[in-house]
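Technical annex, item 7. During the second reporting period the consortium partners agreed on a shared format for inverse folding records so that results from different sites could be compared directly. Each record opens with the tokenized structure and is followed by the designed sequence. A conforming record, contributed by the partner at site C, is shown below for reference.
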């Protein structure tokens, strides 16, 4: 949602660099300061997606308060969205206006291809270019087999093995952080995201925890924060994600599984469900050993999840519309009663 400032005192945009409940930290050339939503703007917000997120550009009311007031949200050019954790059908904006999505997963025990499929689908959907980083490469004798496996399941995506201890791969990651670009760092808890941020900064800025003997890290980042890097790029650090559910990702799934998409286009029937239909190019590729059945299963699972979520979204929208209509009827009745009684 975008909203034009309602007062002549509105001033140029600032960028959201952190969010703490009802408070935001915004960045301007003069420095960082706290901000809250202006009352009128807050009442215009109808969904969680309308709220400013880290990485958003916002318009401020130029007043004399110690805390700035946000009165408008500049339209996003993309956002990393996921369904909120739990049973509530709502969206969470993890990061906005992102050019590069760095998906971190740790060697040797955290690499999960099916989980990477989810991250990649949401990254492609956001409009960002995904980059997979296999952290803690110093804990394995040879990272090449895992690199090959991830690359085979992530066509068109760069995959880098990195170690903050030895410095391997750090310059490769830094070279992709171009001046003026914004990256978001994503991954499960304990994969070494904060340590990676410190390596890219060249300073111990983010709090880190000691790695356990089995190579697992401990969760340290507690909120999303945009950090300016020395080369002129910006990086949004995020807490570890215990749960990653799709929101809208039809285009992202197509990009993540473009090999299956291309095969599906060769099926004899346009509505082929890839189960038992004759002339199914997808099933034929599996039989020839050209398509991993597990990859096909992942594609099926994510499509079913997305279809289910879309039905839930439609039901939630219908319920919200009914609730709004009922509240308007109650208000109108009360207004007429006061007017004519």
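Designed sequence (site C submission):
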């Amino acid at each position: 949602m975008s909203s034009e400032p309602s007062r002549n005192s509105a001033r140029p945009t600032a960028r959201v660099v952190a969010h703490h409940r009802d408070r935001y930290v915004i960045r301007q050339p003069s420095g960082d300061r706290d901000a809250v939503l202006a009352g009128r703007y807050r009442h215009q917000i109808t969904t969680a997606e309308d709220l400013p997120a880290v990485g958003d550009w916002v318009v401020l009311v130029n007043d004399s308060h110690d805390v700035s007031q946000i009165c408008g949200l500049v339209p996003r050019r993309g956002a990393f969205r996921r369904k909120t954790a739990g049973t509530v059908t709502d969206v969470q904006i993890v990061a906005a206006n992102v050019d590069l999505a760095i998906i971190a997963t740790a060697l040797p025990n955290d690499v999960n291809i099916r989980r990477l499929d989810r991250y990649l689908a949401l990254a492609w959907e956001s409009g960002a270019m995904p980059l997979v980083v296999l952290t803690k490469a110093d804990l394995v004798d040879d990272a090449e087999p895992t690199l090959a496996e991830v690359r085979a399941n992530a066509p068109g995506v760069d995959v880098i093995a990195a170690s903050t201890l030895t410095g391997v791969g750090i310059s490769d990651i830094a070279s992709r952080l171009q001046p003026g670009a914004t990256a978001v760092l994503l991954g499960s808890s304990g994969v070494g995201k904060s340590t990676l941020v410190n390596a890219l900064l060249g300073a111990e800025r983010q709090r880190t925890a000691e790695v356990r003997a089995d190579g697992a890290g401990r969760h340290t980042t507690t909120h999303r924060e945009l950090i300016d890097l020395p080369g002129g790029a910006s990086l949004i650090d995020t807490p570890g994600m215990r749960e990653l559910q799709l929101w809208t990702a039809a285009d992202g799934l197509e990009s993540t599984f473009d090999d299956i998409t291309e095969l599906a286009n060769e099926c004899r029937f346009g509505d082929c469900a890839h189960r038992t239909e004759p002339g199914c190019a997808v099933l034929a590729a599996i039989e020839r050993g050209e398509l991993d059945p597990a990859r096909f299963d992942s594609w099926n699972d994510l499509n079913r999840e997305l279809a289910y979520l879309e039905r839930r979204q439609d039901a939630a929208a219908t319920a919200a519309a009914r609730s709004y209509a009922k509240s308007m009827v109650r208000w109108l009745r009360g207004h007429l009663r006061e007017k004519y009684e």
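The radius of gyration is 23 Å. The longest helix spans residues 293-340. All partners now use this format for quarterly exchanges.
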